[in-house]
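User: Last request for today: this protein with alpha-D-glucopyranose, please.
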Amino acid sequence: MTEAAIRARAEELLAQMTVAEKAGQLTQYFYFGALAETQAGVGGLESDPSAVEKVLGRGEVGSLLFVTDPAQINGLQRRAVDGHRLGIPVLFGFDVIHGLRTILPVPIAMAASWDTDLIERGQAVAAREARAVGLHWTFAPMVDIARDPRWGRMVEGAGEDPFLGAQVARAQVRGFQGEAVGTPERVLAGPKHLAGYGAALGGRDYDEADVSDSALWNVYLPPFAAALAAGAGNVMTAYMDLNGIPATGNRWLFTEVLRETWGFEGFVVSDANAVRNLVTHGFARDLTDAGARALQSGVDMEMAIGDPAYARLPEAVEQGAVDERTLDAGVRRVLEAKLRLGLFDAPYVDEDRAREILGDPAHRDVARIGAERSAVLLRNEGDLLPLDAGTLDSIAVIGPLADSRRDTLGPWCFDFDLDETVTVLEGIRRHADGTADVRYAPGVRPAQRGTPSLFDMWPGNAPEDPEGFDDDAELARAVDLARDADVAVVLAGEWQNMIGENASRSSLELPGRQLELLQAVAATGTPVVLLVMNGRPLDLRWAAEHVPAILDIWYPGTQGGTAVANLLFGDVAPGGKLPFTWPRTVGQVPMVASHTRSHEPENQHARYWDEESTPLFPFGHGLSYAPFRYAGLAVDRDAITPDGTINVSVEVTNAGGRQADEVVQLYLHQRHGTASRPVRELKGFERVSLGAGETRTVRFSLGPAELRYWNAAARDWVNDLSPFDVWVGGDATAGLSTSFEVTGA
Ligand code: GLC
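Assistant: Here's the final one, the structure of the complex with alpha-D-glucopyranose:
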């Protein structure tokens, strides 16, 4: 359909709708189906399938979420299309964050690959599987910049940096949507959560965020702008207060910024129950007021668990609190999205085709490659890695996460097939089959008790805590196993239910007795490889001193074990880089690479009495199985005017004896101007794959877009006249530098 036809059809439908039907079109209901029967009332699942089905029959449901079975989706869609005079199809949305059935590494891991083509391919697989089962819309990518690792949702984003975050956001949207909304086998992308959600006070999820305008425009908003520039058709609000105004009732965000500044023409959805919560915030007087003010701020659709505030919009219109034209504007956007997605022409899915697509082995390959390319080699003293299976008689694999399929997938996935999931233990066993004897011991109990995560109620999510687990005996047994082995591979980290939404932590220490286990295993003298399963930096101070090899494998997804074994034995070399600054301890957070220089910079690294002020591992850090050399850093001119462009080139050499990848990173510093500027800001990167001894010239361009920043004094974007320093290398501490100047001449 042409845009003109889409607009005309939307108007035609709008003209026939009652106010109640319009309000319903702006309402999205959770539909847990069978799950609600077993879980109703648990963890806020107040939705009632039969109540939703009744409203559906009245043509008052715009969208449903948490239905992923194609037969169930077709059944509900028939009720909407055949059961009502207007036959408006339902928009089915879901959290396809890092895969639907084929689970990719978690988003922070994919960001650690610094490989935007891979990220796009991964989300295209997720979109293909989602669309095949009848889902039209994913509540992703999560593009919230996160600089406080106590906040559990760091796992869902791309880390601390707006430049990397923007490139990753763009790649994810292109993967989900393809060239445009409506591309076959793709889904509508909904970047979230606008805005500043990652700046929650104390890292406590849902708590208020107080963010300066400078931080908003220079750090938290750029990934959203990039997602919209890539064509995202939807945006989701955030739960918390932003500078005292709830994001979901924030007209500045959803009208002035989103529509008037960025020209966004898609539709906005609230986060779950965030409209109702405007009353909880003490912002709205009651649910009618909440619905009216959310709609008027620019929130088109309410995601509601149970009784929606938007069901009171007819009353608000009646009272004159809401102009029906405001309602019409939201309904128009939602109808246009459904028309663009082709839902009126093809509202149903082919259930047989769905099963075929979900089983596509090519999807598993993408998941494996994602896990291989996202792993970050933090340390490799004495080149302990890669392991030479031919020289090893016995390998001890230690730690319960090594044998946990559910934890290997990580948080934020629901439709997985655990039988398809390859754990680290299984991966090592398969790879070493016939060469080394692989023996396993958990060493510590396989579950951690704490505040249950929001999703513990999902089948398979709640960690099992075996009866009669003798902690001391099991730890001793693991140590004995290590003592008798040629190498000990210890997998430590956080259980997947300890990270993600509503899973903040006040500490970054390895949970439970994992550190004690690691220390005891290391004390045997057997060489130790530490694998880290995580979604945020953890306190690895001891390990960084005493464990020769540390590989961050994140939550590596469906093919995680296969990928990790390929990395351990050298079939592939790790090439990932950290998407965040890795602090030594929680007492240092927040800690970022792009800080400004302040008073007495010479002791900037010793601000604390009791700890260094430097990170354990810097932003952008990651080793490989080959060293890389940089030379010949050059700019093509010494000076430019503010509208000019500088071209930068550098020669990168693989100085090792095997193929390996390097992420070449460019950092910039403006020496002076009308604001203090960060000592280093990432302004370019490229992942290159080089054969042994191979040299490649890598090029970057720096123009007004890279050199500008939002200035709190001018309250606008500025390009200052100043000399600039440029560093290029393999992490934020790169030493090779050059400079140029932006002059007025
Ligand atoms: C959750 C999350 C949001 C998610 C939505 C639906 O509370 O904040 O990211 O998309 O609800 O699951």
